[in-house]
Write a structure and sequence with these properties.
300 residues, alpha/beta, D-Maltodextrin-Binding Protein, domain 2, two-stranded parallel sheet, 39% helix, globular
C-alpha cells in the first residue's frame, strides 16, 4: 500500500496538467447555457484537495455530455480561489467548505458568491496520528512536543484547516506554551511526510479532514477534540459567482439536486485518486458506469 501512495500523492498535483489556462469566460462574459451563446463554464479547484478534484471532473463529464464546455482552473490556495470566484474569473467552486472551514472567506466575499446547495452533509476537520501511536486526544499532545520536534505537520497556509489549528486548537489546548507549532506546507508535502513516517513506524501528528481518501489509505486515527476547537461537522457546497443561476439555470438546478452519501463519495474519490491517479477523467467514467442512476437523477 505505502509503496504506491507516492504516485497517488503526486497525481493530485504535478501529474494533473490537464488544466486549460484561465480565459475570458467568467460569467460576466457569458451569454448563458441555453440560448445558443457561449456555454463555457470554468471551475476553480485546489487540485491537492481531492474532494474538489473529484467533483470537478465529475461535473465536467456530466456537463460536457449536455453540450457545455468545462474548463478546470487549478488554484494553489483558498484565498485566491474565493477572490477569483467573487470577481467572476471563474464560475464554480464545486466543493467548498463555507459553513465553518471557509466561513471567513464567505464573510468577506459572500455578497458576490451564490450558494447552489450542499452535496455532502458530514464533513469535518481533524488532527490525526498513526494507529500505532499512544496518543488518543489533542490533550495528549501537552508535554510531548519534544518527542515530535514540536511540529504538527499541516497543509496550505491559506486553508481553513490551517486557520482553525493556529487560531483555535493551539491556544485552546495550550500547545504553544508547550513548544508546539503548526508547520504549513502543502497537502502533498503533508501526505509525503505521513507516508514516510508510517513506512518507518515513526511518530507524527498531521492535520487531516473527512471525507478524504488518505483516511482509508493510511493507518491513521483521529485525535479526539474534547474542546471542540476544530468546529462542528459541516456540509460541502457548490458555490458559484453571483448571477450564475440566471445564466445557467439548468446547471444550477442539477447542482442543487446533487447529493452524495458516504459510499457514493468514497467510491468516486477512490476511482479518481487511487484507481486512476494519472487520469481523473477515466476515474469519473468508471464511477459513472456504476452510478448512471445517480447522474440521471440530477435532472428529475
Amino acid at each position: 500500500m505505502i509503496g504506491t501512495t507516492g504516485k497517488r500523492i503526486g497525481a493530485a498535483t504535478a501529474a494533473l496538467t490537464l488544466t486549460l489556462g484561465l480565459s475570458a469566460c467568467g460569467s460576466g462574459e457569458q451569454s448563458g447555457g441555453g440560448d445558443g451563446g457561449d456555454q463555457t463554464i470554468t471551475m476553480g479547484i485546489i487540485p491537492s484537495w481531492t474532494d474538489g478534484l473529484s467533483t470537478a471532473y465529475l461535473w465536467k463529464n456530466i456537463l460536457e455530455e449536455d453540450g457545455y464546455t468545462v474548463e478546470i482552473e487549478e488554484i494553489n490556495d483558498a484565498a485566491p480561489l474565493y477572490t477569483g470566484l467573487a470577481e467572476g474569473d471563474f464560475d464554480v467552486y464545486p466543493s467548498a467548505w463555507p459553513e465553518v472551514t471557509h466561513k471567513s472567506y464567505m464573510d468577506e466575499y459572500g455578497d458576490d458568491i451564490e450558494d447552489l446547495g450542499a452535496y455532502y452533509d458530514d464533513a469535518k476537520l481533524t488532527m490525526a496520528v498513526p494507529e500505532y501511536s499512544d496518543l488518543t486526544s489533542i490533550e495528549d499532545l501537552v508535554g510531548k512536543s519534544g518527542d515530535y520536534d514540536g511540529k504538527i505537520v499541516g497543509i496550505e497556509a491559506g486553508a481553513g484547516l490551517t486557520k482553525a489549528v493556529q487560531e483555535q486548537v493551539i491556544p485552546k489546548y495550550g500547545l504553544d506554551e508547550d513548544g508546539w507549532e503548526l508547520q504549513t506546507s502543502s497537502t502533498p508535502a503533508m501526505l509525503n511526510a505521513l507516508e514516510d513516517a508510517v513506512g518507518s513506524e515513526e511518530d507524527i501528528v498531521v492535520t487531516l479532514w473527512r471525507p478524504f481518501w488518505a483516511n482509508n489509505t493510511f493507518p491513521v486515527r483521529d485525535l479526539e477534540d474534547p474542546k471542540g476547537a476544530l468546529g462542528e461537522p459541516e456540509a460541502l457546497h457548490e458555490l458559484a459567482t453571483a448571477g450564475f443561476s440566471e445564466e445557467f439555470p439548468e446547471v444550477a438546478e442539477m447542482m442543487a439536486n446533487a447529493k452524495l452519501d458516504d459510499e457514493q463519495y468514497g467510491t468516486l474519490e477512490d476511482q479518481v485518486v487511487n484507481q486512476n491517479p494519472d487520469d481523473p477523467a477515466a476515474g469519473v467514467e468508471a464511477w459513472i458506469a456504476d452510478n448512471q442512476d445517480w447522474v440521471d437523477s440530477l435532472k428529475s
